[in-house]
Structure formats: C-alpha cells, structure tokens
Amino acid sequence: YEDEVVDYDLFRSQAQRYGFDENEYLAALDRVPRFNRDRVQSALTFIHNLAHTLSIIGYGNVKLSKILAERNYILKELQESEERYRATLYSIGDAVISTDSDGCIINLNSEAEKIIGWKAEEVRGNEINQVFRIIDEKSRVSRNDYVVQALHGRDGNNLGPNILLIDRNGFEKLIDGSVAPIQDKTGKVLGAVLVFRDQTQNRAMNKKLQIMNAAIQSSANAIAFADLHGFITYVNPASLRLWGYEKEEEVLGWRVTNFFLIEESEAIKITNEIKQKGNFFGELIGKKKDGSHFDVQISATLVTDENGQPYCMMGSFVDITEQKRIEKALAEEAKRRRILIDQSRDGIVVMDGEGGVFEANQKFAEMLGYTMDEVSRLHVWEWDAKISQDRLLEMIQSVTEEGDHFETQHRRKDGSLIDVEISTNAAFFGGKKLIFCVCHDITERKKMEEELRREQALLRTFINHIPDPAYVKDLHARKLLANQADLENMGLKKEEEALGKTDFEIFPHHVAEHFYRDDMYVLRNGKPILNREERLVRPNGEERWFLSSKIPLFDEKGQVIGLVGIGRDITERKNAEERIHYLSFHDSLTGLYNRAYLEEEIKRLDTERQLPIGIIMMDVNGLKLFNDAYGHRMGDQLLKTAADVLRRICRKEDLIARWGGDEFIVFLPKTTFDEVEIIRKRIIDECNKTQIGTISLPLSMAIGVCMKEKSEIDINKVFREAEDRMYQNKLTESRSTRSTILSALRITLHEKYQVTEEQVTKLQNLARIFGEAVNLTPFDQDRLALLVALQDIGSITLPEEILNKTSPLTD
Fold it and tell me: Which of 731, 651, 744 shows the shortest CA–CA distance to 692?
C-alpha cells in the first residue's frame, strides 16, 4: 500500500536469494505500483453495503455474480500483485513473519502483530512454533510442519483453506497465505518467510451472502433483477413457477415487459418512476408462458452502488389473482349486505364510542320518525326512553364482539314510545370501536304478551279452581304445571314443590312406573291416551279413582314438546258401580249371594267333576208373625241372624244364597250325604242356641235336604225335592213355632205392662160373652179371645219414653 514503509533489508536478501543485482532490484522496487488502501477498502465496503441493503428491503436472494466477479477480480489482482512482488514488497497489507534458518523469528510486520497478538520486540529471537501456532480446522491437527518443510528447503506451501491460527489470547482465526524458504544463490536455506491474512471476517461475509442467496432462491415470493435498460439478469425459482417456466435460460436477457400486458408508454413511465423515486408499487396483469393471464402485485426497487449510483433494478412479484377474486366477492357481499340492511324490516344503527350515530338505515329513521339527516346528528340517549345517559355510555364501553341482547323503549320524534328489542355487538375498524345495533319493534308483541299474561292469569285461575287435577309435563316427564287438585293428589301444598320433578320423586315406585309408561307412550308416539281409569292412593292413604287423559303437546313444527294431563275424580261413581255390581250378585239385606248369582254358579258347577252335590233349602219359621208382632226391622234382624248362622256353619267352598223372602239355599259341591247331614244338624243346633236380638226367642228354620249323586239327574229336580222336604218339615215345625212365638209375646206383654194371667183370663171370658151376644162362631170367639190377650202387641217395640210421654208427640 502507498502508506506502508518499505523494509529494504528484506528485499536485499530477496535479491540475493533470487540472484538479482541488488541495485537494479531496489530500483525496480521503486517502480512497482503502490495500491491505495482506501480504494481497496471501498470496493469491499460496496459489497458489504449492497448485501446490507438487500437484507433491509427483504427481497432475499440477489444475484451478485457480477458484484462477486468484480470483487474476485480485485482480490485476484491483489493476489497476483502479492505473488509477483512478495519477495520485494515487505510493506504489503498481508501479515509477514520472517525467520532464520533455525526457525527463530527475525521480524514481523504490524499486520502480523495484529493477527497473532504479539509485538515484534516481544517475540524476536523466539522459535516460530511458540508464536505462530496453526492447526487444521477439521482434524484439529497441528500444521506447523509447513514452516519446518520450508526450513528444509522445500518449495513453498499454501496455508489454507482450512487453517486456523491460535493467537496469543487463545482465539482461533481463519487464515490463508503461504510459507516459503529464503535461499541464497546456491540454494542454501537462510530462513523462511510466512505471508498470511485473516480470513475470519471474509468467511462470515461469504456465509452471510450464501444465506442471503439461499433465502432468495427458496423464497416463496417471485424475485427478479434487471439491468437499467429493463433486461432480466436474474430470476429465482419462485419467479419461474409464477410465469410457468422451468429454466433460467428461458427468461434471462428478456425484457421485463414481455411478461406483462402493458403498453410501452406505461412501461417507460414505471421504469422512470423507479429510477426517479427509487421504488414502485402497483398491480399489473401478468402473462404466463402458456398465454394465460393473472393478476400480479409488483414491488420494485432501484439498487445503487457504494457511490449511490444506479446499478440495477430488483422486483418482487406476488400472484394476487385469488386475492382479487376474494376482494371482488367481498365487494359483492358488502353490496348485498347493504341491500339487506336497507331492505331490513328492523332498524339498524351503528354508533361510535361516544354514542353518536355513525350510520343508520332508513328503517331506523322511520321507526323514530326522523329524516336520515336528523338521525345522523342524534345520540343514543336522545331516543332511549328507559336508560340514563351515564348507563348508556357504560354499556357502550362494555359491549364486546360477542354482543348483548336486551329490551328497552325508544322515544319517537313526536314523543310517543315504542317497545324495542335490541341486539348489539362491537367491532373495530381502523382502531375505532363501533357498536352495531339491530332494533326490532316489539310494541305489538308486548301488547300480545300483556294480553297473553291476562289470559294466562285467567287460565291459571280457572285451572286452579277446577275440581279435576290438571298438569303439564315436558319431554322428560317433569312437571311444568300442576293445579291445586293435582297437588292434593301428590300430597303437596305449593306448586313449586312439584315443578321440575318426575313422578318417581313424588309417588311410590310402582305407581310412578305406571304413570311413566303412559307418559312415554304419549311423548314418543304423539298419540293421546283418553279416559283411562286409574287407581291412586294419596300419601295420606286415601284411595281415589280417576278417569285420566294424557294428550301430547306440539310446537308449530309438529314436534312433540310435552303433554297435558287431566283427570276426573270418579271415586264416587266407582264406588257406586262396585256397589251395583255387588248388589247384582248379593242380597242387600244379608250380604249373601242372591238367587241370580246362585243360578249362574249352578250352571257352572253342575258337572260330573263336582259330584256328589248336596242341596240344603231352608225357610225361616214365623217370619210373618214376627214382622206383625215386632215390626219389619226386627223381621230383617231375624233374616240377618239366620244368614250369620249359615256363614258360621257352612264351609268356605259352599255357596250360601238367599233364595227369596225367608228362604235360604246352601249348594255343597263334592259333598257326600253324610257330610251334608252333619252340616244340617249343626245348623239346627246353632239355631237352637241363637236368640234373635234381645228377644228371648230361639231361631227356627224348616230344612229340606236332597242329593245329586249321578250326572244324569236334573239339578232342578233335586232343588224341587229339597224344597218339598223343606215344606214338609215346615208343616211339622210351624205350629210349634207359632205357639213358641205367641208364648214369647205374652211373656213380653206381661213384663212390659205387668198384666197378670188372671186379668187376661177375665178379659178373654168377657170377650167370649160379647162374641156369643153378637152370634160369633166358636172359631171366631177363640180368635177374639186371642186378640184380647195380644191387644197391645203393637207397642212391644215402642220405647217406653214414647208410650209414657204426657205431651203431644212430634211429627
């Protein structure tokens, strides 16, 4: 370099080594061109600045072949000059170390001091291996043998490309250079000279350039370079794909305008803009290799050298065909939305963060009775009639993109109020928060809701006061409504106790299971269950019967959403029916089976399998006389007593029936004659031991028995035979029974009225005298005497307080 001091001693030794005339050699040295250090550094700076510029604009791989060629040219020129004048130019910018024949350091220049970290005076005389330590970068093996080889007279060795120098501080530096022996004319080795340079920074820069080149090559964006005349000098793979080409050779050297649908004048205009402004950004129509067209976005930049002079143009290209299509679709969608907003039957208003109107549709203005111009100057608190200004501002600040939903009232321009339903949500545009509100006029709906509430209140009042239980259930058979009658069935007092519950939570499991089965039939099939009789035992143990109906509830789409249940209490009717059913087969007085039931059962039991069959027919003796003497109430008691005797004596499998009047029948299937006789005798014995009420009179019945022991015998004939035998027995027993009853009556009269037998006899004699006087027959005279004896028989059953009452009787 021009600013370096020449070491003439070194060059004298070099002249001697190569056999040159010393004076001529030194004179030639003065004629060697001296390199300007600033110019060399500016060339390297240009390369660095260009790489830095490319990294800033972000377009990646720039083809630097021309720049690199220029740099290589400079380096090559420097290297050739170095080789040509290595022996003579001690002051070259490379590091130089010289040794003697023993390998001890003679001298080193400032660049060497800088690289190895030692001063010349510190190491002069030291062995070279102590200061200049080099290793192979990959194998980490020492390569100080290069110096040894030079000291042994071998030709020079190049240091590189993977030689690391370990400096004084232990840092490793990549170097290249050479080691050569210093010899005299005879070839004697006088020492060695080491010429080297620090390549660490160059390697880092090369690596950076390689990374940048790889980034450009692998970039998804199409990147291309062109000279200042518009001819393409470089394209990356993405560019080839974008335009449909496969090889660089197909496009290099072409004008950029060949790849666009563009007029020449427009191309010139864009080129001038790049040159004048340094960049261009816009959209063009691209033309592919196959002739198809596409939308492309171009971003072009003017590349300058280190002096700021234009060097080339770089462009980045993006296919925006899909983006344009989407933009077009969005524009059309926005247009459609605008139409929808304008045609909407709801009022739509967009507000800013202060509650002012940003935009509104015509319907919103019509709802409030304003013009569009008037609406644009309003704030929300000027039309909201229910919410305060402060609260409205709080709501505006708190509304989110998820939105809100509420009801309020709007005040029209004329002061009238309308009910509205508001749906709001927030969105940000350009960093500004906007509130979108859809206002639906619900004034009519509110009126309908109020009317519905009145109707519901009326319906609720009606439902709660009807005596029949009524309820509503959802799809899961949970109670949604229950009237008071239904609550009574559940044993609850308040409807809230039943709402949301199933029958399983209220009734016993077996009852709930029955209800649930019916519910699921209605809900799943959409068909009603009508007028089904159901038995319900309330929690208090009371049994009730209901005629229940379950009807499905449908929504407007015909889907089942629940069911309505209603039941009519038919407990009284059910009891009456059971009573009627009971009476149709039972005697109402005695509780025994009646004749109709017995006749039906005889038809069923008159089979060979039931043989032998016994029939006992009975007739209560003295019933008429008993009725006449004691009244029909006591006569009924007589029949009940007879029925009780038969119940006690007969077996469970025997059929006991009141045949009619004072007659009873016992039908005994699978019973032998001996067994029938035993039962007959037990009946007679029990009658003799049984008194009728408080009267000291035993029960008496005439009994007839007959057997059916063969299937061919007619059962009716057996009945008639039993009846005949009963009447025969009655003839025998009736006189005795009559006498017994009369005796009992006399005793009762004597006890009640304290009449002596002597008094009765006197009255009877008097009656006979009277009978003779009126010419009565002897038979009638006897009857008259009996009448006198029993004249007060009708008062036997009357209470004494009535007979002895002195005041008038009541009705």
Answer: 744
What kind and span of H or E run contains 272?
helix 264-277
Q: Give phi and psi for 236, each to the nearest 5.
A: -90, 170
Please tell me whether residues 12 and 136 are part of one structural domain.
yes
Domain boundary among 446, 476, 491: 446
Q: CATH number of the domain that 85 lies in?
A: 3.30.450.20
Q: Are residues 14 and 131 in the same domain?
A: yes
Clarify whether residues 174 and 276 are in a common domain. no
Each residue's pLDDT tens digit, 183-200: 877 778 888 888 888 888
Q: At 626, list the tokens.
A: 């008993």
Q: Which residue has the higher pLDDT, 720 or 69?
A: 720
Q: What is the pLDDT of residue 60?
A: 36
Largest pairwise CA distance in the chain:
219
Q: Per DSSP, what are the bridge partners of residue 409?
A: 419
- For residue 505, CA distances in Å to 177, 377, 478, 545, 566 come to 99, 61, 10, 21, 20
- Distances in Å between the Cα of 469 and the Cα atoms of 430, 516, 566, 578, 775 are 64, 17, 6, 23, 80
At residue 167, the 3 state secondary structure works out as coil
Residues 614 and 671 sit within 8 Å (Cβ to Cβ)? yes
Above 70 in pLDDT, residue 592?
Answer: yes
Q: What share of the chain is helix, strand, coil (3-state, %, to 5)?
A: 45, 25, 25
Range of the domain at 778: 755-803
- 405: part of which helix (H) or strand (E)? strand 404-411
How many CB atoms lie under 10 A from the CB of residue 378?
Answer: 19
User: Are 675 and 759 in a shared domain?
Assistant: no
Q: Are 615 and 678 in contact (CB under 8 A)?
A: no
Q: In which element (H, E) is residue 76 found?
A: helix 65-85
pLDDT digits (tens, 9 = 90+) for 628-676: 767 788 888 889 999 999 999 998 889 999 998 889 999 999 999 999 9
Structure token pair of residue 371: 């013009």
Which band of pLDDT confidence, cut at 50, 70 and 90, is reported for residue 58?
A: very low
The size of the chain, in residues, is 811
Neighbouring residues of 150: CB distance < 8 A, sequence distance ≥ 6? 156, 157, 179, 180, 181, 189, 192
Residue where the block lists tokens 């967009």: 350
Element (H, E) at 357: strand 357-360
Q: For every residue of 728-744, which 3-state class applies, written as one string? A: HHHHHHHHHHHHHHHHH
Phi-psi region of 782 (alpha: psi -120 to 50; beta: other; left: phi over 0): alpha
Mean per-residue pLDDT, 299-310: 87
Residue with tokens 């090889």: 247
pLDDT for residue 743: 60
Neighbours of 315 (CB within 10 A): 20
Task: Provide the residue type at 297 as one letter.
Answer: Q
Residue type, 725: R
Please name the residues in contact with 514: beta carbons below 8 A apart, sequence gap of 6 or more: 534
472 neighbors 560 (Cβ within 8 angstroms) = no
The values of phi and psi at residue 486, to 5°, are -70, -35
Residues 552 and 563: beta-carbon distance below 8 Å: yes
Q: Which of 324, 313, 280, 311 is nearest to 298 (CA)?
A: 280
CA distance 118 to 129: 13
Q: Total structural domains in the chain?
A: 6
Residue with tokens 């060097």: 311
The DSSP output letter for 810 is P
56 and 31 co-located in one domain: yes
Q: Are residues 596 and 725 in the same domain?
A: yes
Overall average pLDDT of the 66-86 stretch: 52
- What mean pLDDT is reported for the chain? 81
**The pLDDT of residue 495 is above 50:** yes
pLDDT band at residue 461, thresholds of 50, 70 and 90? confident
Strand locations in 538-650, DSSP E? Answer: 543-554, 560-569, 613-620
Does some domain include residue 783? yes
Give pLDDT, residue 86.
44
